[in-house]
Design a protein that fits this description.
Oligomer: single chain
Helix content: 25-40%
Shape: globular
Largest sheet: 8 strands, mixed
Order of helices and strands: HEEEEHEHEHEEHH
Strand content: 15-25%
Structural class: alpha+beta
Distance between the termini: 51 Å
Radius of gyration: 17 Å
């Protein structure tokens, strides 16, 4: 298969997985985003798109030379951490970012998921032996979040983003989706096993920058 056909196949597979994530309520409305490594760079869901209805035309190709595709589409604002993961992890070819319910609840605790269940093999890659890590809260779309995400992910297949959600990666789009589903299930187990949790608040010094990201909610 030539590179162009291979990239088109991967994009279609990624959008199919994104729709499945939406159907499973791993994402809702316009939350979350997906990307896949391509021959010329990466193809990422556009800003404002919905995973539940994502189509190939909603994917934006980002190359070292800029954007390719319709001028009215912008890549997801979370592009920085997708790019940083691909740079740090040559083995990763697909990424799914979700605001799934259980993972987001656990992510407010700011703790690493302990290795309490057999599914925790998800975390046991490379030198990861302290469970699935949670990155500290950083402003969505920021370079600080990109750095924190790469550090939390390490050599694992998924991580939590503090007060935000989860990121799952894979060698294929289906692999990334499977890891996102598993992490959500692990977080449900964690909530049931550790009911006395201590949610952390978003740091006060980051609230104004966060509020500025959502001007349409100001009424």
């Amino acid at each position: 298969m030539d590179p162009e056909s291979r990239d088109a196949f991967l994009v279609s597979e990624m959008t199919e997985c994104a729709r499945k994530a939406g159907a499973l309520w791993l994402n809702h409305d316009t939350t979350g985003n997906v990307s896949v490594r391509c021959d010329e760079g990466m193809s990422i869901s556009c800003s404002g798109s919905s995973c539940a209805t994502l189509a190939d035309i909603h994917m934006v190709l980002v190359t070292p030379f800029g954007l390719e595709g319709p001028e009215n589409l912008r890549p997801s604002s979370e592009y920085p951490f997708h790019h940083a993961i691909y740079e740090a992890r040559p083995d990763v070819h697909a990424i799914i970012h979700c605001h799934s319910y259980a993972a987001t609840v656990v992510a407010t605790d700011g703790v690493n998921l302990p290795i309490d269940f057999h599914y925790m093999a998800l975390a046991l890659k490379a030198d990861v032996r302290d469970g699935i890590r949670c990155a500290p809260f950083e402003i969505p779309g920021s370079d600080a979040l990109a750095t924190a995400t790469v550090q939390a992910l390490g050599g694992a297949n998924a991580c939590l983003l503090g007060n935000h959600g989860q990121v799952a990666v894979g060698r294929t789009p289906r692999g990334a989706l499977s890891n996102a589903i598993i992490l959500e299930e692990l977080c449900r187990y964690y909530i049931a096993s550790y009911p006395l949790r201590s949610p952390k608040r978003i740091p006060a010094d980051k609230l104004e920058a966060l509020i500025a990201l959502f001007p349409h909610y100001r009424g």
